[in-house]
Batch of 2 targets.
Target 1
Amino acid sequence: MLKRQTSGSVVCPSCGRLVGVQEDVCPHCGRASPGLWGFSRVLQVLGQDVGFVKLIIGSCAVLYLLTLVTNPSGIGTGGAMSMLSPSSGSLFLFGASGAVPVFGYNRWWTILSASWLHGSLLHILFNMLWVRQLAPATARLYGPGRMMLIYIVSGAAGFLLSSTVGAYGNFLLPPFLRGANLTIGASASIFGLLGALVYFGRRGGSTALGQQAWTWAVVLFVFGFIMPGIDNFAHLGGFLGGYGMSRVLNPFKPEKVDHLLAALIGLVLTLAAILASLALGLPLVAR
Ligand SMILES: [Zn+2]
């Protein structure tokens, strides 16, 4: 299936018009290498698949198991909310974000990795149910590439906001509204998907869907204030990141191969962030 195209024409990833696969520059819009070295069609086939949703859920499940087995004696067993919770050390090692990793240890890349880690069995179940609910709908409206981009960027926006507030703003704030010292979970990205659906609705795409997403966002946000230990700034940053990305990506224009390419780069950077967390974290945790 991964066959490189060497002759004929392809759709330019920038302007959507037909260009020869061997052209150096698109004659219509001037984009360099519009044939993507023959891989443009492979990427388009990939794009029709919503395999990204399975990728998110599968990766989160594998990473959750890894954070558990890395330190079995540190697994928390108290109460329903913290049943089967990986130790803080494991979570730090695999790339938890927050004021301590980002500003204390200069692990700035953890704003990418933290979305893929979870703090208990209920935490991952709850978040993956939301991913299953929202990601396919977002992928249908925005295309899978833009859905994945929104997911990644809003997660990073949420953890950047929460870590920054945690490091510099907490002394001003009441205890229920503080930035996090150590934070993980897909909920910043989930709020990003909600932001994308709200944006789609407000721009006239589907009022009913937009209102539904807004209701969910408000309920989940209020829920975060009532429950202890919820990272409300990650939720806020994730929502704003998803809404902002949706403005930039404009769902009313068709998805291009470039969006898919950018999503793949985002996933590779995320994987690199997890690997960097492990490689640079091992000497710290082993001490
Ligand atoms: Zn073009």
Target 2
Amino acid sequence: MKKIKEQRYQYMMTALAVITMVLVIGIYMAERCEDEKLMAVTSEDYIKWVDYRVSAEAMKKACRLDVESYYEEVHLDWIVLLAYAAVQCGGKIDKTSITYIDEIAQKMTEKEITVEELKSTYKHFDYYYEAYEAVLGGLLGEYEIETLDKEGKSIMEKKYGLKAFSPIAKGFPYQDYEDFGVSRSYGYERKHLGHDMMGAVGTPVICCESGYVEALGWNKYGGWRIGIRSFDKKRYYYYAHLRQNRPYAAGLEIGDVVTAGDVIGYMGRTGYSETENVNNIETVHLHMGLQLIFDESQKEGNNEIWIDFYQLAQFLHVNQSEVVRDNETKEWYRKFKMLDYIVEEFAKEQK
Ligand SMILES: [Zn+2]
């Protein structure tokens, strides 16, 4: 009897030991998993902040050098040129620091230095390249645009160059000035994280860069607004305070793919109200916001990165979309068709 009792006792102890071990291992594994998850979040090396201070002149210069060298032996990447200038002047590329763009363009054309060498020589080059690539990555490329030949017949012309547009349609006057970061008080004290372009009610608002409609509808600050995400997901264009009653281009819906230069909506003064469709903004204007997203966790919340659009608006001013009005529906449409290859690629991927 005693033996059996002892055996039972031993069995129980063994079982208890096994259960304890399983539990300890389980807890350890769970903790490790948690650690790994945290590691994944904290060690993820993505850019947390960008202060975009590149002048329109600098962008124009770099863009021209890129476009002009497109078919040459050495194609100068405008983002490389700007990243180099940024390294030299601490990220503020104004009139005096434009010379760095010429300097590096010449060196690269003469094959005195390569991009790899720039990366290994300058500590912050990678940061600026990645940051600027996020801002400018979708603005240049190959595309086809409708033009008229000598007989006035419509043809599609293949091009390489600036394929992004100003948010204001051609022929519609607007005024703007440097206004990023000034204070705003509706709702709560905050900084103005965008650029305002003042014009008349109904001015056609143009899609700057091709992408898809991610947000559409009422927002208590922005009023009727449209949010368009670039295909590489790094940029979110925010067009706000659109027209009362008819804010959007007819039929525009969330998920729609839009091409740069398309009419997407109309300027107005809606917003600053919890109630929908209210004109509560004094001055008619388009609020243009550009948000950078390196990691999806930066999309909403305290880690949002909004950049100054003023210099970009000036840079894009050379490319204003020409529009025509359908007198019956009173809708405006782009005059010249455009084939942005990136739109085709995106459509193919979706299938
Ligand atoms: Zn604004």
